[in-house]
Amino acid sequence: PQGSEEAKAFVNAFLKRSMPKMKDEAIQDILTRKAVVLEHYSKKKTKQKRKKAKGFTAKQRREMRLFEIEPEQQRYTIFLPLHELWKQYIRDLCHGLKPDTQPHMVQGKLLKADLHGAIVTVTKSKCPSYVGITGIILQEFKHVFKIITKEDKLKVVPKLNNVFSLEIDGFISYIYGSKFQLRASERSAKKFKLKGTIDL
User: Fold this and answer.
1) CATH H-level superfamily of 70-189
2) Cβ contact 154:129 at 8 Å
3) If we measure between CA atoms, which residue out of 141, 181, 147, 142 comes closest to residue 161?
4) What does each C-alpha distance from 196 to 45, 192, 199 come to in angstroms?
5) Please, are residues 123 and 163 in contact by the beta-carbon 8 Å criterion?
6) How far apart are CA 142 and CA 164, in angstroms?
7) Which phi and psi angles does 75 have, rounded to 5°?
């Protein structure tokens, strides 16, 4: 067993090692209070930066022509199976389109649904040349629809100032393009309000 002097020397040496920044007088002052709080130096943890998955920029996508449909692929018959898939998708979305289904319920579902594969017709337009264009929607952007017609022509139809009709299993729905200028991904979260009169 250590004597009192040896114990004192040990404590002094231990405190010097534990608190290197403190002077001997300060250590002695701490010992007289009988309460010793040892200093703790925490190592700073280096935060690892999360690497974001880098996708292509809009400019790179344009340069790579990712969204362009090749001329040999611009045929109406190629996309008819897509239309059949779309019809089944809408039936599932509306829990089966029965004769007693409420039209406003179907309308509400269609406003938020993905329209790629739907057959639409331009019924009204401020530009007469657009009226009567009918075809399958191949691509939907914020401001335009890309539609393939039965004549195998790819038409780019703006949403602004155009009214589109869409028919499925006897239900006819009208889309006012001026109020529909959203990307498909944004539209699913938007709340559409019913309005009495809508102008082109």
Assistant:
1) Ribonuclease P/MRP, subunit p29 (2.30.30.210)
2) no
3) 181
4) 61, 13, 10
5) yes
6) 15
7) -130, 130
**Model pLDDT for residues 147-181, shown as the tens digit of each residue:** 999 999 999 999 989 999 988 888 888 888 888 88
CA pair distance 101, 112, nearest whole angstrom:
18
Q: Which alpha helices (H) appear in the chain, and where do they start and end?
A: 4-18, 24-33, 58-64, 80-93, 103-112, 184-187
Q: What is the pLDDT of residues 72-114, one digit of tens each?
A: 888 999 999 999 999 999 888 887 777 777 777 777 788 788 8
**Residue range 27-64, pLDDT digits in tens:** 677 667 655 555 555 666 667 777 666 777 878 877 88
Strands 154-158 and 144-149: antiparallel
Contacts of 177 (CB under 8 A, 6+ apart): 158, 159, 160, 161, 162, 163, 164
- Can you list the pairs that 14-21 forms with residues at least 24 positions away whose Cβ atoms lie under 8 Å? none
| Domains of the chain by residue range | 1-33, 70-189
Q: Residues near 167 by Cβ (< 8 Å), separated by ≥ 6? A: 119, 173
